Amino acid sequence: MLASQIGYYALIIGLFFSILILPVSIQNFYSNKNLDGRIFSISFLQFFLVFLSFLSLILSFVNSDFSNETVFNNSHTTKPLFYKISGTWGNHEGSLLLWLLVLTFFIFIFLIKSNNQPKKYRILTLLFQQIIIIGFFLFILITSSPFNYLFPVPKEGMGLNPILQDPALAIHPPILYLGYVGSSIIFSASLAGLVQNYISKSWAKHIKIWILTSWVFLTVGIMLGSIWAYYELGWGGFWFWDPVENVSLMPWLCLTALLHCILVLEKRSSLTSWTVILCIATFTLSMSGTFLVRSGILNSVHTFANDPSRGIFILIFLFILILISLVIFFIYHRENTKDVNKIYFFSKETSILINNWFVMYFLSVVLIGTVYPIFLEVMSGEKISIGPPFYLKLMIPFLIFFLLFMSIGPNLDWIKSKNLKIKYQLVLLFIISILISFLILKNKGLTSLNNTVLITAAFYLFSTTLKDFFSERFINYSQRVSHFGFSLLILSILFNSIFSSEIITNIKVGENFFYKGGTIKLVSIENKKVNNYESIIGNFRLIDNNNNLTILKPELRIYNTPNTSTSEADIKTTLFYDKFLVMNLVKGNEYFNIRYQVKYFMIWIWISTLLLALGGTLSVFRRVNEK
Amino acid sequence: MYGKKVKLRVLFLLLVLTSIILSVYLILKLLEKDVVYFLSPTDIKNLTEINNQKIRVGGMVKDKSIMINSSEINFIITDFRNEIKVSYSGAVPNLFEEGKGVVAEGFLKNLNYLDASKILAKHDENYMPPEVKKALGGK
Q1: How close does chain A come to B136, measured CA to CA in Å?
Q2: Is the Cβ of A300 closer than 8 Å to some Cβ of chain B?
Q3: What integer pLDDT is reported at residue A271 of this predicted model?
Q4: Are B55 and B105 contained in the same domain?
Q5: What is the ipTM of this complex?
Q6: Mean pLDDT of the A223-239 span
Q7: How many domains does chain B have?
Q8: CB contact (8 A) between residue A584 and residue B93
Q9: How far apart are CA A281 and CA A254, in angstroms?
Q10: Cβ–Cβ contacts within 10 Å for residue A332, how many?
Q11: B104 shares its domain with B118
Q12: Cα B96 from Cα A224, distance rounded (Å)
């Protein structure tokens, strides 16, 4: 009750301060003095008030204060404390407040960390960021306040959707948001840089930390969502090319391109306009993602409420931001004539440019696959969905070349590779890769040309990145770790999709099911009552052809509030494969519907994604220490 | 007649344009085969011919229609005007229940019978896929 009041008024005062920043910083912009100390204090206050507001929302959730509408809709007294807290951002209103919190936090960090940058550039960045922040303030206060008051006060809440009650998913939104919102700083900074004609080597050096940080958070955030989908949705996959997943992949691809392109700007001060376009595109994609998911156009667990006014608000806001950025781009964009560097074909620049083209191609495939169904529905009313075959067909042929370029690119020098004599090592590794992949596939009785070529390319990248660890020439550990992680990721995904097997059947208690690889027996069923759900645990004995026994106990949880059920898969993870068993009950039937999967290299998919992120993190720390 | 630079520019632009047109064409061509259309049982009744395309059918699982044996699940999808039989062997999602919304993906064998390869249900109790809502005529 009190907490909600505090939260609400903190938000309003916060909005007041964020508007106050505008005149103060504009005045400071035109004066000759240094950056005004008041700007720091006000933006700290702004952050502090949003933080206070967020804290009070968490408190309302912890205390199960059902006079607050958001708490009522998304919480329940029997829910464990951890999920009461994570419920704060497991809904539309709370997650927007989290967006705002991160926005205000990042701009404050930006201000204190950019001391060595020109004053006017810093103020302009702040101004652009304030436009976004004020937009979010208004959005929250007008259309989706998390502090609406309910009277009479209900005794019990509606509960949080049980499939969201999960540790991976509890931290998935905050991590992902750090990535999304980090791109807003990049966006504002690039616009400010354009206006001040400051897109240069030193700008690249300074903004790169932000790019890396957002990229790392986005990578980990997507991975957490993916892990959750793997064990909670019960399909046994980790990526479904679902529009909601694609929406997070698009900014990631854009950031990945930017991450490489900013290197060219930093080292060779070329590709300035391209960098700025990527900066704008990344943030636009993050915002459009929020719009598509929140407006209810894409339906999924992420769609909390289908209130058209919210969708329209974000759409208008998005439109204004894109318009502003485009206008600024066309007015202030100048040809870089100061120090134009010629780009040679055999150079790192070229290979990074090629990388960017490939990534842009992948991005447009994902974009078309995601947007086309929406577009078609609006135009013709036809409803369609686009499945994995579309993405795989369009991406795999290009992925092969992408992997090959990625193996060679990092071995080239900046400016011009003088060392053009064929490197025997690289050729040798290529031949070895072909042999290995052929042997693997032969062994498994699969000899499709497509797979062979793809695995060869992936193996080639794997071996060249591995080789780099032992060569003396580079000291760039972060790049090596990330590239190695990426090659491992591609390999694991490939092996996972080629070798994994699946058995689906319906089974009664006490029955045996025989299949080619062994037997599955449902020994018994156990019922248990846990505080906010009832659980049915199946006791399965699996015996494979080598007489190895595995006992798996998948669980079915039946929640009362809201009245729904979830399947908890039981997964036995080993170094090379996961045994995955999930069961389901159709009401009023004695048959249990089970899905048993052997998924190869699952754990390596997560490990390699972590390696990718680790590479980024190493690079951030190296850069911070350099200063 | 024109400078070398202009010629190069024009050539470059032409190249970019043709590659864009070509790629969009290819993508749309691919889309044609890989898209899945969404139909309600009534839409299916109104079909004149059955083509070999994957479709999705949405509606409610009819009461007392689910029949399970060890290899198959049979049920009926209804939109309260027309209905269609579905046979399916695969994993069912949570919340697959009689009287609840469902979307089945597969191939039509005839106008009354769908051989499903995938079943989708909604993620939470109060939420109904827009497709189902529409198929049910906003009930």
Answers
A1: 15
A2: yes
A3: 83
A4: yes
A5: 0.71
A6: 85
A7: 2
A8: yes
A9: 7
A10: 15
A11: yes
A12: 26
Q: Is the pLDDT of residue B3 over 80?
A: no
Per DSSP bridges, beta strands A577-585 and B73-78 are: unpaired
Mean pLDDT of chain A: 86
Min Cα distance B1 → chain A (Å) is 27
- Looking at the structure, tell me whether residues B98 and B53 fall in a common domain: yes
Residues 6+ apart with CB under 8 A from A547: none
The answer, for B20 touching chain A at a CB cutoff of 8 Å, is no
The minimum CA-CA distance between A559 and chain B, rounded to whole Å, is 11
Is the minimum CB–CB distance between A582 and chain B shorter than 8 Å?
A: yes
pLDDT digits (tens, 9 = 90+) for A157-183: 877 777 778 888 889 989 998 999 999
The DSSP code sequence of A489-527 is HHHHHHHHHHH-EEEEEEE-TT-EEEETTEEEEEEEEEE
Which chain B residues contact residue A507 at CB under 8 A? 70
Question: Collapsing DSSP states into helix, strand and coil, what is residue A341?
Answer: coil
Q: Do B111 and B79 share a structural domain?
A: yes
* Tokens standing for residue A535: 């659980």
User: DSSP label at A413?
Assistant: P
Judged by average pLDDT, the poorest of A35-44, A181-190, A336-345, B98-107 is A336-345
B30 contacts A393? CB cut-off 8 A? yes
Which of A358, A506, A522, A563 would you mutate first to test chain B, the one with the most B CBs within 10 A? A506
Question: Out of B35, B72, B94, whose CB is closest to A384?
Answer: B35
Tell whether B114 and B65 lie within a shared domain: yes
Residue in chain B nearest A513 by alpha carbon: B70
Q: Give the pairing of strands B35-39 and B55-61.
A: parallel
What is the domain range of residue B81?
A: 37-135
What pTM was estimated for this model as a whole? Answer: 0.89
Neighbours of A613 (CB within 10 A): 22
Q: Is B12 on the interface with A (CB under 8 A)?
A: no
The string of pLDDT tens digits covering residues A511-534 is: 888 888 888 998 988 888 887 788
Domain definitions of chain A by residue range: 1-165, 501-603
Give dist(CA A527, CA A535) in Å, integer. Answer: 6
Query: What residues does B84 pair with on adjacent strands?
Result: B77
Q: Which amino acid is at A602?
A: M
Yes or no, beta carbons of B125 and A563 under 8 Å apart? yes
- By CB atoms closer than 10 A (0-12, 13-18, 19+), residue A51 is middle
A219's tokens? 């990578």
Alpha-carbon distance of A533 to A53, in angstroms, equals 31
* Per-residue pLDDT band at B126 (split at 50, 70, 90): very low
Residues 224 through 283 of chain A touching chain B, CB cutoff 8 Å? 234-235
Instruction: Select the residue from B55, B68, B118, B122 to test the A interface by mutation, using most A Cβ atoms within 10 A.
Output: B68
Q: Is A384 on the interface with B (CB under 8 A)?
A: yes
- Whether residue B49 is found in the same domain as residue B73: yes
Chosen from B34, B55, B89, B103 to mutate, greatest number of chain A CBs within 10 A: B34
